[in-house]
Amino acid sequence: MFLEKKVLDDATYILQTAAEIERLRSRINDAAVCKHASSLNGGRSCTIEYSSTIGPGALMGSANYHARIRFHDGSPSWLLRVPRVASFAVGLPSSLVEYLVLSEYATLKFLETTAVPAPRAFSYGIYGTGTDHGTGVSFILMEELRGTPWTGQGVSGGEATENEKAKVWSGLADILIELEKHPFSKAGSLCLQSSEIEVSAVASDRFLVLTPAGPFITSTAYYAAFAEQYLELIVDGQLYTEYPINAYLVYRFLKDNATQLSSQEENRMTERFYLKHVDDKGDHILVDKQLNITGIIDWQMARIVPRHEAFGPSLVTADMNALCNGKFSLSPSDLVLADMLRRRGLSDLASNMTDEKVRRYFWGLALEPEWTYALPLANAILKAFGVMEGWSQWKESALKEYETDERLKRLIGRSSQMG
Hints:
3-stranded antiparallel β-sheet; disordered N terminus; 5-stranded antiparallel β-sheet; 13% strand
C-alpha cells in the first residue's frame, strides 16, 4: 500500500489531526489501562495523562500516539504507545499494526539484554486478537526515558557546534560498538514467535507500507526483496504514478545490482546480521542538557540487517540537502563518526562508513511526486553503482536490456494508451 502524501495547509492539518486523535482517545479505556499498568508495577495506583494533540508538548509521531501513565507514589512514569491506525497521513492496515507492535516489543525486550539505552517494555496488547487487556487498542506499555529528542541543537539551544555534534557522535559510536556484540544469522525483524524472540519478516519500511517479507539468510536476497516490493507497487499503479516507466527502470536496476551490496561474508557462508534503527533521523536520540545520550527510542520498524548497513552511513549522519538533491558523497558527520570508531581501535567497523551505496539504495527515489525532482536521485543511484552515463543515455540502453520484461512491457503499453 502506497502512503500517499497530501499537501494540506496548516489549519486543515491541525483540524484533521485533532479529529483523528479524538477518535483514537475515545477508544482507549482509561480504567483498563490503569488497572493493567498498576498490576505490572506492584499495585501502584496511577492516572492516564493525555498530551496535547499537536505542537509543543505533544507526545506523538507520524505513526504513534502516546499517553503518559503517572503513578501516584511518584514512581517513574510510563508511556502508553498506540499506533495511529486511522491516521489520515499514514493509515496503517490493522494486520500490519499487529505485526509492528509484536516486532517493536520483541526488539525492546532484546535490547534489555544489551547495554543500549532503550526503553524497557512492560507489556503489549493486540486489539484484533482480544489480547488488549480491555484497553480497546493495540499498544505497548514502556518506560518513559528522560531527555529531549536531538534535532541538531547545541547546549545553548541553537545549532550545535562541530564539537557538540562530535559529542553526540561519540555516544552513538559506543552504541554501535555494543550492537556489534550481538550478531544474528538472518536478516529481517525481531518478532515474538510462541513467546520466543526470533528473526522473522521485515517490519515494513519508513517510506511505504510494505508487506512483511523474509527472513533472509543472505544479504543479496534481503536487498533484492526490497526492490521487488517497489516494482510490484509501481506495476500495480500505487507508486510513482507520474513516471512509472522511469521508476520501474530504477528499481529493476537496483534489484539486479543487489549483489553489489552483498557482504564478503556471504561468500564464506558465515554472514552475520545486526540490529539497526531504520528511522534514525536524529530525533530518535534523546539527550540531556550536556548532550549526553540518555536513550534511543522509536524502534517500531527496526531491522536485522547486513553488517555494512548496520554500521554504515545512515540518515542520522547524512547531509539531508545533499541526499535529497542527489549529491553522492559522504557527509562531514559520516567521516567524524567513522573517526570515532577508529579511535576506539575499531577500524574494521569504521570501514563500513566509507561507502554511501546502501544509504542511496534505501533512499531510492524517495516519494518524489514528479520526475523533475526524482531525476537527481536517479542519477545519484546510477553513480553510486558505477554507471558513468547520464540518465537519457542509460535509459535508452536499459529499455533494450529489459525489453523482454513482461511487467515493463505492460507499463509501456499502458503509457502509450494514455498518450
